[in-house]
Write a structure and sequence with these properties.
- The complex is a heterodimer of chains A (279) and B (791).
- With 279 residues, chain A is an alpha+beta fold.
- Chain A contains eleven helices and 14 strands.
- The longest helix of chain A is centred in the last third of the chain and has 20 residues.
- The mean pLDDT of chain A is 96.
- The longest helix of chain B has 28 residues.
- In chain B, strands 3-5-1-13-10-11-12 form a seven-stranded mixed β-sheet. In chain B, strands 7-17-16-15-8-32 form a six-stranded mixed β-sheet, sandwiched between helices. Chain B has a four-stranded mixed β-sheet with strand order 20-28-29-30, sandwiched between helices.
- Chain B starts with 14 loop residues before the first helix and ends in a 12-residue tail after the last strand.
- Classes of the chains: A alpha+beta (279), B alpha+beta (791).
């Protein structure tokens, strides 16, 4: 199939982009790497009147480092992160996640902002950024706002973004040198969206102990205090203390009923914990 | 001169253009005034079509069955007794029988615009109950797919041995139900056609991605009612076929009709979604098998009931009978089985017609039979390969006529099996398994053995005969050779291998040979590329033509050397006599440009020959193959990794071992797809549920291991050079070998999975159902609802 006819603009500034999106209303869509929107256009699942290509906006490709955090522009690609062109603020977690997204051809073009805005529940960034406690900076003609990554995605393919609101950057708190993380995703074949994601981070410098359960057909489950899943604070051999009932209760509460997905999610989280232990 | 004859690992002549991106596929062709076609396709599986509503402003751009009056339906009729005939109209006339069926043609300057038009055409239909399950389809009271196909069974094919006598005394009885999923063939290039009317020649010219341009021409002539001399079919480079391009379907009929109607070239390029949803279905089989054996595992009898979900139409030209008739005929496999009963039904359902895919019924049959062998081995506590060895046809029995009258021409199956056993190191794997799981993963060993009837001159139904193949060879005035054959290359390297055969017979360097394929106007008739027949038949015809050319060249060379014909040989680009030689180039120059140098009695047939070939027997050459693999299964996730995979293959004399290895690798990759990944599910309304490659999983590079290949060459007594077919073989074994390996790994859990693909979900479900029942369990999906009938 081929897309319906649409107009195409490639503005050079954020202001112009948000203005075009505001004028275009619900029939205007922003596009960056086109790795999700492209197929939807070809399948005619998306039939916009106007595409606003945001890849010429240089500020969306910038990276800002601060002592406590790093801010990466929305149009940074998965490959930029995988290849280390973005400074490592997360002790390798970002590059690890990026390197497992789809195929290299997708990673070369796909962007972090695009992935968050598309909000496919099985995508990696919608799980990994909330795990890290990231914030998403957005921009519309009404101004900027900052949204916790874990609340940006509302449900499957739905975010709290207004139709003329662009993701500008993702702000990631740094992990300390003593931090540990584990991130495990299961897919049937390389390049496929995962069927389960389990992630865990622990940073003794600030006591953060977080977990995520992702690819559950809706927004991921983010656990701000992972102690509830492991019967207490982070410790050695944490994976042996995984409280399966506590995990299943969370999945129950979110209506995850498929037995295969439930079991896979449990295994993913346990193995993520083991990965953190070994780190 | 480089030795690039039969047996040489010559580099492929065609690869230069392919590697430089200079191949010319159907999507690369451009013609002036060409416009694009998109089809309006049915959104439902089974319905009565009451009307097609076309907006007034689009009437010039949309065509329906009413416009196609005069075009005959496609009819593929098997001569098998009891075959119930059905028709496939190119566009739906009154009844829709599958999702994606063609309802209207939309033409515009671009495909996108044609799709815009298609979106505005509305269908008025009344839904009928969809026939989706091949077992329910045969129950009394099921809706009928075709009024003419009673009981929704196109044909049943059976063999009726005396099972009861064996059953009364056999000490071992093993029964299983086995299933293979519906798959979708997935060549990188989908189908596509361009049709145009040449007013000067008064000829319909059809360019298409097809495996058999001559058959398409014959089929188009028939349904369009146009004389064949007024049709030319040209197949450019083809990006994979696998059987999917060995059909004549509605799209090319519609396009051909449209070109004659509108007068400008029209093009349809299938997209992946059309291919997945509407077209390239294959493979869905069901088996209920009981094997009777003695305590050593020697099979005494096989009793089987099988069904093939054949879908909505009888595909042209191989018919709705091909798959089911092969199942019954080849289920005994490579084994010496004395008593055999089998009935296989070709069942009509509201799904896309099942088409013959690489190996046709053999991958399903091999899967079923080889899982039975492992089940027998488990039952009696022997190594599966020992049970195989106890039943294989032995070399001293060759040539051997088996219980279904299949004629095995040659081979040493026990030796092939030993090659695979040694290569995979069975004892080493057993010792490894004794040491327990590796990083939590269970190690399993699986094997499969099959005998593959290749290049058979008769189709599977035993009636439709191909008894010949021709090749045209011409030495040009500059001493080079052009070879024209009606067969088509779909990636198998015929431009190289036919040149190697020519080189072997005429002593000419393959650099001086050009093989031209794929154009009905320029080549002798051929039934095309299917059934692993290319090298046997087209290779044989090339050999015959070039041998005849060599004889003529020898005569002219002898005359030019002023010696007698008995004293010359043709080799190394020349004719050699006792006292010197004369090059092919000088002979050709003399014949064409300086005939006065030749004697007056020179053969006026000249330096061009159409050679014909048929094997001494047309019952097929039997290649043999043993596959063996080691897998690691993660019992927590159901993940499977293939750690090692070996293929021992006897395809007779190999014309180019490197190309054969490529064929086996590609085929095995597809077989691994069948084993672990590929499945087209349907909902209860007959909607196909995998409409993109995100849902229909194909194996990629990370999923295909390094496959180690071992050759054995037992020449066939019936062909030129002893060639056998090999194009399909790689795809046949993996379903069985991988499934047996997974079941071996899961043995300690009492789990045996009898359906492919074996997905992580199926593994975990099977393990859980065993854990819950606290006893061994077999899973073949839902219990069979198919009534057992006496064949």
């Amino acid at each position: 199939m081929k897309p319906v006819a649409f107009d195409y603009e490639r503005p050079g500034s954020l202001d112009e982009a948000t203005r075009l999106l505001a004028e275009g209303g619900s029939m205007a869509k922003a596009v960056a790497g086109s790795q999700s929107l492209g197929p939807m256009l070809n399948l005619r699942l998306a039939q916009p009147d106007l595409l606003v290509d945001i890849t010429a906006i240089s500020e969306l490709r910038t990276v800002t480092e601060r002592p406590d955090l790093i801010e990466i522009g929305a149009c940074v690609t998965h490959a930029d992160i995988e290849d280390g062109r973005i400074p490592d603020a997360t002790r390798g977690l970002l590059a690890f996640v990026a390197g497992h997204i789809a195929y290299r051809a997708v990673r070369n073009r796909g962007t972090v902002g695009g992935s968050l805005a598309h909000a496919d529940p099985a995508a990696d960034w919608v799980s990994a950024f909330p795990l890290l406690g990231a914030e998403v900076v957005t921009q519309s003609s009404r101004g900027a706002r900052t949204i916790p990554a874990e609340t940006l995605m509302v449900s499957s393919f739905v975010t709290g973004l207004e139709h003329d609101e662009l993701i500008r950057a993702v702000r990631l708190p740094r992990l300390s040198a003593r931090a540990r993380w584990g991130y495990v995703r299961f897919n049937h074949k390389a390049g496929e969206f995962p069927h389960a994601i389990g992630g865990i981070i622990h940073d003794p410098e600030n006591g953060r102990f977080r977990a995520v359960l992702g690819a559950i057909e809706s927004a991921p489950i983010v656990v701000a205090d992972a102690a509830i899943l492991f019967g207490g604070p982070y410790d050695r051999d944490i994976e042996k203390r995984l409280d399966e009932r506590a995990v299943l209760d969370l999945l129950d509460a979110r209506g995850v009923q498929d037995d295969y997905n439930r079991r896979l999610t449990l295994v993913a989280l346990r193995r993520a914990a083991a990965q953190a232990s070994r780190a | 001169m480089a030795k690039n004859g039969v047996g040489a690992r010559a580099k492929r002549k065609e690869d230069e253009r392919f590697l430089l991106g200079q191949g010319q596929y159907i999507g690369d062709l451009r013609f002036p005034r060409m416009r694009d076609v998109a089809f309006v396709r049915s959104p439902v599986a089974h319905a009565r079509l009451k009307g097609v509503v076309i907006p007034d402003h689009l009437r010039e751009s949309v065509f329906t069955a009413r416009d196609l009056a005069g075009v005959r339906p496609i009819k593929a009729v098997s001569p098998l007794p009891g075959f119930q005939i059905s028709e496939q109209p190119p566009l739906v006339t009154d009844k829709i029988r599958q999702v994606g069926e063609l309802v209207a043609i939309c033409v515009a300057d671009t495909r996108a615009q044609a799709e815009d038009i298609a979106a505005q055409v509305l269908l008025d239909y009344e839904e009928l109950p969809a026939v989706v399950d091949m077992h329910e389809a045969r129950e009394p009271g099921s809706a009928l797919v075709h009024d003419t196909v009673k009981g929704n069974v196109y044909v049943s094919v059976g063999f009726d041995g005396d099972i009861d006598t064996v059953a009364a005394v056999a000490p071992v009885k093993v029964t299983r139900e086995l299933r293979t999923a519906r798959q979708v063939m997935s060549p990188i290039e989908c189908r596509g056609f361009i049709a145009q009317w040449d007013a000067r020649l008064g000829q319909l010219i059809v360019h298409g991605a097809t495996q058999f341009p001559h058959v398409v021409r014959t089929g188009l002539a028939d349904v369009l009612g146009v004389p064949e001399i007024q049709i030319r079919v040209v197949s450019p480079d083809v990006g994979g076929g696998f059987g999917y391009k060995a059909i004549l379907a509605g799209e090319e009929v519609c396009l051909s009709w449209l070109a004659m109607r509108v007068g400008y070239p029209v093009r349809w390029l299938e997209d992946r979604r059309e291919m997945l949803v509407a077209n390239a279905n294959c493979r869905e089989h069901f088996y209920a098998i009981t094997a009777y054996a003695d305590k050593a595992g020697k099979i005494l009898a096989i009793d089987a009931e099988a069904a093939v979900d054949t879908g909505a139409y009888s595909a042209y030209p191989f018919t709705a009978a091909i798959e089911a008739s092969q199942v019954s005929a080849i289920l005994p496999g490579p084994y010496d089985i004395p008593v055999y009963r089998c009935n296989t039904a070709a069942v009509a359902t509201n799904k896309a017609p099942q088409l013959p895919y690489r190996g046709v019924a053999r991958p399903g049959v091999c899967f079923a039979m080889e899982l039975m062998i492992d089940a027998i081995a488990r039952e009696i506590g022997r190594e599966p390969h020992e049970v195989r060895a106890a039943n294989l046809v032995r070399p001293e029995q060759m040539p051997y006529d088996n219980v279904t009258d299949k004629h095995f021409d040659s081979g040493d199956y026990p030796q092939l099996l030993r090659m695979a056993i040694d290569a995979i190191d069975v004892n080493g794997v057993r010792a490894r398994q004794q040491r327990g799981p590796e990083n939590g993963r269970l190690i399993g060993l699986g094997m499969a053995f099959f005998s593959e009837q290749t290049g058979h001159g008769t189709t599977a139904d035993g009636k439709r005969r191909v008894l010949y193949e021709q090749c045209f060879a011409r030495l040009t005035p500059d001493g080079r050779l052009e070879v024209r054959a009606g067969i088509q290359s779909i990636g198998q390297g015929l431009e190289t291998t036919l040149a190697q055969v020519a080189s072997e017979c005429l002593g000419i360097d393959i650099e001086d040979v050009q093989v031209k394929l794929g154009d009905t106007e320029l080549s002798p008739y051929s039934s095309g590329a299917w059934g692993s027949r290319g090298m046997i038949w087209a290779g044989g015809a090339t050999a015959r033509a070039c041998k005849e050319l060599a004889a003529r060249v020898a005569h002219m060379g002898a005359a030019l050397l002023q010696t007698d014909i008995e004293s010359v040989t043709v080799r190394d680009n020349a004719v050699y006599g006792p006292n010197g030689n004369v090059s092919l180039r000088d002979i050709a120059r003399a014949y064409y440009l300086a005939p006065n140098e030749l004697p007056g009695d020179t053969d006026p047939h000249g330096l061009e020959v159409t050679g014909g070939f048929s094997p001494t027997r047309v019952t097929g050459m039997h290649s043999g193959s043993a596959h063996a693999c080691i897998v690691a299964v993660d019992p927590e996730t159901g993940g499977v990794e293939i750690l090692d995979y070996v293929v021992a293959e006897d395809a007779g004399t190999l014309v180019n071992p490197m190309i054969v290895e490529g064929q086996i690798w590609g085929g095995a990759a597809q077989g691994i797809g069948s084993a672990l990944f590929e499945e087209m599910p349907f909902d209860r309304q007959g909607q196909p549920l995998a409409s993109t490659l995100a849902d229909y999983l194909l194996p990629g590079c990370p999923e295909v291991p390094n496959i180690r290949i071992f050759h054995m060459e037992t020449p066939s007594p019936y062909t030129e050079f002893g060639i056998k077919g090999v194009g399909e073989g790689g795809a046949i074994g993996p379903g069985a070998a991988v499934a047996n390996a997974i079941n071996d790994a899961l043995k300690a859990y009492g789990v045996e999975i009898c359906e492919i693909p074996i997905t992580p979900r199926r593994i975990l479900q099977a393990m859980q159902s065993v854990a819950m029942s606290k006893g061994p369990a077999m899973t073949g999906g839902e219990p069979a609802r198919m009534p057992r009938t006496t064949p």
